[in-house]
Specification:
- It is a single chain.
- It contains 5 helices and 27 strands.
- By secondary structure, the protein is mainly beta.
- A hairpin with a 6-residue loop joins strand 1 and strand 2.
- Helix 1 runs antiparallel to helix 2, helix 1 runs parallel beside helix 3 and helix 2 packs antiparallel against helix 3.
- 35% of the residues are buried.
């Protein structure tokens, strides 16, 4: 039986031999192995071979920096972005769906039928294809090189496949294999300028929660399938999308002090909520909710096949948890990023006086991975009763108002300018304050 050291030596030799392009290094590996070199020397040999076949090196022999790296160095680069009409917007957000772009540049002529593999990491449920649409490959025009007008320097329409790469029973990621279109006559200048293509409708992993940033492993293969060049492209840290006052709003149907009312929640998100995911809403101190009384009604823009319902209420934390349901006749399915979706939470008692505190709105996967997060959100409502007497209908931070204040004698408003609303025809956003007897 071979010793572990011998096995390691054999593995190092095979790795060194695979994809070699420098005959001197390869010959050295052969001689080292024949002479019974130690595992350490063999591993050093493997490292030299790997460096000789990496994407690194000078890419500026044509006089133009590599478009891919932005410098005179060869390399690989992976970016995540949302396609828009005006510009590409970076999207390092948890569970967002968009485009993955791969670019590579080498200082060797790349055949027009070259094959590239890209291994996307599996952490936090990994990248998921066909999310929001059918994933396709789109070749990109890369400036520079001999052919600077046609996508991928005129090599034609590439093809791609995706399969889960396994190590025994454990997934090590999604392996994307791309084959160039087989057209044109690529040049060294084309290879040094770089090749780029987009993969569409790919959902990001969930937020990395401060964990180390993963790498995408990229290999450029020879015609026989052996590795010609290899490299790693770092991914950006995947983070939850931060909700703001512009993307998550809470409107009290009636802001009168101490009464039972409803709250209309409106939200615009960037991440997909999976079928087993949830929405959590925390109300500020002073609000009272009762288990079994609050439901979510008047749901809009959640999707024709989707709905949400109140699963639980935590009276102590003032937390409402909503989960996904299928609309009538439909099974439960993922909810795509929401655009001004809203629902009305019923039977919530207002505080007795004073300004409301901040609300929290959070979305999670079934494994409690953060997706969209808003941790300090103000409540908004139409202007208070005394202001309506004066004709104002602005939306602003809510204060709980005493009911039936005659002619608003007990109600005043403090604005950022420090002026009262009384006698004014145009008002600035400020805060309303209820004054007791």
């Amino acid at each position: 039986m071979a010793t572990s050291a011998q096995s390691a030596t054999d593995r190092a030799y095979r790795k060194c031999e695979q994809g070699w392009r420098n005959r001197a290094l390869h010959t050295r590996c052969v001689r080292l192995r024949a002479c019974g070199a130690t595992t350490l020397f063999m591993l050093l040999c493997h490292l030299q071979c790997a460096l000789a076949n990496s994407f690194g090196g000078a890419c500026d022999t044509s006089g133009s920096p590599s478009v891919i790296t932005g410098t005179s160095s060869c390399g690989v680069k992976v970016t995540l972005w949302f396609p828009t009409k005006s510009a590409n917007i970076s999207r390092p957000f948890s569970a967002s769906s968009g485009t993955v772009r791969l670019g590579l540049a080498v200082s060797k002529i790349v055949p027009n039928s070259a094959m590239v593999t890209m291994l996307l990491p599996p952490e936090r449920e990994g990248f998921v294809f066909n999310y929001g649409g059918t994933s396709t490959i789109v070749p990109v025009v890369t400036p520079g090189g001999t052919e600077a007008i046609l996508p991928m320097h005129g090599t034609g329409m590439p093809m791609f496949t995706v399969q889960t790469q396994m190590n025994g029973t454990v997934s090590v990621g999604q392996l994307v294999t791309v084959i160039f279109g087989g057209m044109g006559t690529p040049t060294l200048a084309d290879a040094e300028a770089g090749y780029e293509f987009d993969l569409t409708y790919v959902r990001n992993p969930y937020a990395s929660a401060g964990l180390p940033i993963s790498n995408v492993l990229v290999n450029l293969l020879q015609a026989n399938g052996s590795v010609w060049h290899a490299g790693k492209a770092p991914l950006p840290e995947i983070v939850p999308n931060n909700l703001s006052a512009a993307t998550a709003m809470f409107e009290l149907v009636d802001p009168a002090a101490g009464i039972q009312t409803d709250i209309i929640v409106t939200m615009t998100t960037l991440g997909w909520i999976p079928p087993d995911g949830r929405i959590e809403i925390f109300l500020p101190p002073g609000f009272i909710i009762t288990y079994g009384s609050t439901v979510a009604i008047e749901q809009t823009n959640i999707g024709e096949q989707n709905a949400v319902y109140v699963k639980s209420v935590d009276e102590l934390e003032r937390k409402v948890t909503l989960v996904l349901a299928g609309a009538l006749g439909f099974p439960v399915s993922s909810i795509k990023p929401l655009d001004r979706a809203s629902f009305r939470l019923t039977t919530i008692r207002n505080p007795y006086s004073g300004l409301t505190g901040t609300f929290r709105l959070l979305t999670f996967s079934g494994s409690s991975d953060a997706i969209d997060q808003g941790n300090s959100l103000r409540s908004f409502n139409k202007f208070l009763k005394c202001a309506r007497r004066l004709g104002a209908e602005r939306r602003m931070p809510v204060s709980i108002v005493l009911r039936d204040s005659p002619w608003c004698a007990l109600c005043s408003t403090e604005f950022l300018s420090g002026r009262s609303i009384f006698g004014l025809h145009e008002f600035q956003i400020g805060r309303a304050v209820a004054k007791g007897l």
